[in-house]
Design goal:
Layout: H1 10-27, H2 35-50, H3 57-88
Length: about 90
């Protein structure tokens, strides 16, 4: 089971789960929280490179990608809200 789930690399695993479940918050307009899987993914990737037996590079990269998508979506939503408020004046 260690090949599928990188239990020795908790940061990569946390980045993966935060990224996947963060998509729910992204739909609700809270994509700004995508920073969490982004940071955890970077830390998990560094850990996987430092300790190759820990594995988890795939989970860390998935967390980074999903976190970046969520962060960009959140920032776009904030920009739309701000532009909408400016246009109503």
């Amino acid at each position: 089971m260690g090949g599928l789930i990188p239990y020795k690399n908790g940061k990569a695993l946390a980045a993966y789960y935060c990224g996947v479940f963060g998509l729910i918050s992204c739909v609700l307009g809270l994509g700004i929280f995508g920073i969490v899987p982004l940071i955890l993914g970077i830390l998990g990737l560094k850990h996987a490179k430092r300790y190759p037996e820990a594995k988890g590079s795939g989970h860390a990269i998935t967390g980074i990608v999903l976190g970046a998508i969520e962060l960009v979506a959140g920032l776009v939503l904030i920009a739309f809200v701000i532009l909408n408020l400016i246009m109503k004046r």
